[in-house]
Amino acid sequence: MSTRIPSASGNGAPLAVARAVSLADVAALAGVSAGTVSRVLSRPDMISPATRQKVLAAADRLGYVANGAARALALRKTQTIGALVPRFGGSSFPTLVQAMESALAAQGYNLLLSAPDHARAQDPTVLRALLERGVDAVALLGAEHPPAVFNMLNQHGIPYVLLWAVSSTQGPCIGFDEHVAAALLVDHLADLGHRRLGFIGGRTDDNERARRRLQGVLAAVARRGMMLSQDALLETEYGFASGFEAMKTLITRNTGVTAVACGNDYLAAGALAALSAEGIEVPGAMSVASFNDNDFAAYLHPPLTTVRVPIREIGEEAARYLLARLAGEDAEPPVLLPLELKVRRSTAIVG
Amino acid sequence: MSTRIPSASGNGAPLAVARAVSLADVAALAGVSAGTVSRVLSRPDMISPATRQKVLAAADRLGYVANGAARALALRKTQTIGALVPRFGGSSFPTLVQAMESALAAQGYNLLLSAPDHARAQDPTVLRALLERGVDAVALLGAEHPPAVFNMLNQHGIPYVLLWAVSSTQGPCIGFDEHVAAALLVDHLADLGHRRLGFIGGRTDDNERARRRLQGVLAAVARRGMMLSQDALLETEYGFASGFEAMKTLITRNTGVTAVACGNDYLAAGALAALSAEGIEVPGAMSVASFNDNDFAAYLHPPLTTVRVPIREIGEEAARYLLARLAGEDAEPPVLLPLELKVRRSTAIVG
DNA sequence: TTGTATGCGTTATCAC
DNA sequence: GTGATAACGCATACAA
Q: In sequence order, what DSSP letters do the residues of A241-280 get, joined into one string?
């Protein structure tokens, strides 16, 4: 308070300031050595209550803030986790990242975010930037990362985990089983008597999760002897508008489907809106994935069935796993997280 | 390749690895001094092409990755920007952060993300964590930060900026004028002949942006001599479901409004869905804010009028401003970003 | 153009 | 319990 730096008058602050308060400054004021100050801050019980108070008071008075770079240099770790998140935007990744950040922060870790756009996504340089910043571990979203990424990671011996990915030979994964997710939905519809299914999903040439989702649906459809004709299968961008348009197209094609599965909640919402706009009642229209706080699809045009995808949970498990690894434990990540079917309303096909 | 560390067999990687490759290692292999290697990497044109190649080859061969902590310690800067992002509903947070991260990455800066939950949002400790990690500057989302935050920031003489905030005496801001935004909408409706307006917005006791938005609407309504009765004014959580419920409530109350303004796109979408479900036609139902990639409200139930809020632009300007400050320029942030009215369809009130 | 030496702020090792 | 002191890996002033 009294040692306030002459700085800043409300608007902004001067760039160059006297010099940051260091351990030495605190030590000088407290009349102890720098080493002691360091210990007070990291192993408080290693030093006497008397000096501890003295030091703490001095630190507080000077507004001391540790220099993480110096600490990182000495400790050879930064308490920072890097997240490599391709196409952060429109997807559910933000939710996942938030969950991970929370879990990390609770343990005193920071999250260094790298959200390369499509062009830079395959560029190993972005990982390099993370490594140069000294992240202790990294979380990779999705499994679509170039080999160079894994080479660097392995070469540096730094723990990493693939999120929203499974059965990758590239490294430990945390995700869920798309085939099970699809089976939950398709079985439900099949049990209700639906025979012809439509599917509106993401671009499979471009999005590995969309690809797996489609595979899961196709497998379940085959297993149940349902039909999913080529012209009832639409790939599109994710998003409400895309779902809207796709469903309109589907309707135009007159494919005879009685149920439509959608690759995610946004697509489902758009699709349902299109049905509503056209005044068409398609029993069993449903969404494959419902994102935690955006389950707006449910309000638009039931019947709707949803599989809740464990998005936040993936982020939380990632934090848990990575931290365990850093703690030296030889932990195994939970490869497959549980899924949950949420039936808003069902429409059975009779006859 | 040949100097590959014995590490990692696909699944994971050992925690303890020989030792990271350092400048000295590269120097040794290249047969030059560490200083030279450093210069090759930072000021390539300061040294001869011959040795440059030698050094580069050696670095590449060893898979050298600079140690950011050491660099930060020597340079007294980290090339890292901190973002303090109190969680708020809807999806504008990821969009803004993504835009900022991209702009930052393009300039070789990293983004350290801190997204405290509601409980921790007022805790200066989260800023402290960022400072300890050595961020060169910080972006604060919203203006709802405790004085302690600004004290620390000023005391450390570190550049910062408030995002999605205006006219704060606490520091430089980048945002837009809520009153102008509201005026765009309200004037449009007033011009169409609407007299009685309803408003569904976020919680004002809890969300400063929601508060300003409401104020803007009230001011515009007063200026145009419109009516916005107390029972036509609903505050709720952000989200589709909330908007849906709020509109149902509004309908039940029979307030006689002919237009409803919504605090954001999600609320608007929910509200429109409710209208659709109830089969009610409310001319001029509209949304105050439309988020860049989620303009799904438009598909649900026109007429709809929207003010596009410059979310990405705020992130980009933040990066630009902060980087300018760090470059020593005495830059001024663009306090107010331009707004844009988007009329999907209008319904005039006649008589 | 390049090598040498020093400092950056912290932690850890070793005395005391 | 506490004080010196040596790393930690890099950048840079100064020499050569």
A: HHHHHHHHHHHHHT---SEEEESSHHHHHHHHHHHHHHT-
Query: What are B275-285's pLDDT values in tens digits?
Result: 777 776 655 55
A 279-338 near B (Cβ less than 8 A)? 293-296, 298-300, 325-326, 328
Which among B63, B276, B299 has the least Cβ separation from residue A155?
B63
Asked if pLDDT for residue B157 goes beyond 50, the answer is yes
State the greatest distance between any 2 C-alpha atoms of chain B, in Å, as a whole number. Answer: 90
Q: Which CATH superfamily, name and number, covers A78-176+311-326? A: Response regulator (3.40.50.2300)
**CATH tag, A16-66:** 1.10.260.40
The model's pLDDT over B285-336, given as tens digits with 9 standing for 90+, comes to: 545 555 434 556 556 555 577 888 898 999 999 999 999 999 999 888 888 9
Name which of A153, A171, A149 is nearest A161 in CA terms. A171
**Extents of the domains making up chain B:** 16-66, 78-176+311-326, 178-309
Q: Which residues of chain A from 171 to 210 reach within 8 Å of chain B, CB to CB?
A: 171-172
Which are the contacts of A135, defined by CB distance < 8 A and separation ≥ 6?
Answer: A78, A80, A81, A82, A112, A158
Q: Residue range B174-188: average pLDDT? A: 90
Q: Among all protein residues, pick the one whose CA is nearest to the C1' atom of C6.
A: B74
What are the chain B neighbours of A110 within 8 Å (beta carbons)? 112-114, 129-130, 133
Same fold across A78-176+311-326 and A178-309:
yes
pLDDT in tens, A45-74: 999 999 999 999 999 999 999 999 999 999
Length of chain A: 351
Answer whether A160's CB lies under 8 Å from A317's CB.
no
Interface contact A132-B68, CB threshold 8 A? yes
Residue A176 near residue A131 (C-beta atoms within 8 A):
no
Strands in B41-109 per DSSP E: 80-84
Q: Mean pLDDT, to the nearest integer, of B158-167?
A: 90
Which positions of chain D lie under 7 Å from any protein Cβ? 1-5, 7-13
Mean pLDDT across the stretch B330-343? 86
Which residues 6+ apart lie within 8 Å of A164 measured at CB?
A96, A141, A142, A174, A175, A209, A314
Distance in angstroms (rounded) separating the CA atoms of residues B251 and B237: 18
Closest to A214 (Cα-Cα) out of A225, A203, A206: A203
Coil, strand or helix at B261? strand
Mean pLDDT of chain B: 84
Mean pLDDT of B332-351: 76
pTM: 0.88
Do the Cβ atoms of B13 and A157 come within 8 Å?
A: yes
Is B16 an 8 Å CB contact of chain A?
Answer: yes
User: Phi/psi class of residue A12: alpha, beta or left (left: φ > 0; alpha: ψ in -120 to 50)?
Assistant: left
CATH code of the domain made up of A178-309: 3.40.50.2300
Q: What gap in Å lies between CA A133 and CA A349, rounded to an integer?
A: 58
